[in-house]
Amino acid sequence: MMATVRIQEAPFDAGALIAETHRANPKVGAVATFLGLVRDINAGTDVAEMTLEHYPGMTERAIENICRDAAARWEILDTRIVHRVGTLRPTDPIVIVVVASGHRRDALDACAFIMDFLKTRAPFWKKERTGDGERWVEARASDDEAAARWE
pTM for this one? Predict the structure, then answer.
């Protein structure tokens, strides 16, 4: 199984990433994707922008480990993940997870698994700028509950 993980400030081309996962592999029968976007509201407060920080090297390794865990559970042919860092505004894409497999269930489940663990295991820190000032975004119990369903 191939896994490509990129952390970058620049926008990404979702269509190109999806095409890359299956273009040269006739064994691919399904591609599942998740595209995460910046919302203009969080916890009932308007959000003007979000800044994401990470530890280079550590973040990529954590995501690669999540991909390995997914590959141990499902028959995955390719995985591509791009996660943005830096300052983002509402409607900006933050993350894309693309999983290719021979069959839809493997692709769909692996994509959901990877995203659930990205939210809980990948070392990212988010700060939001609101009308009331800046605030760090705390981990959500609902994200931990989502990840726990895979245990």
Answer: 0.94
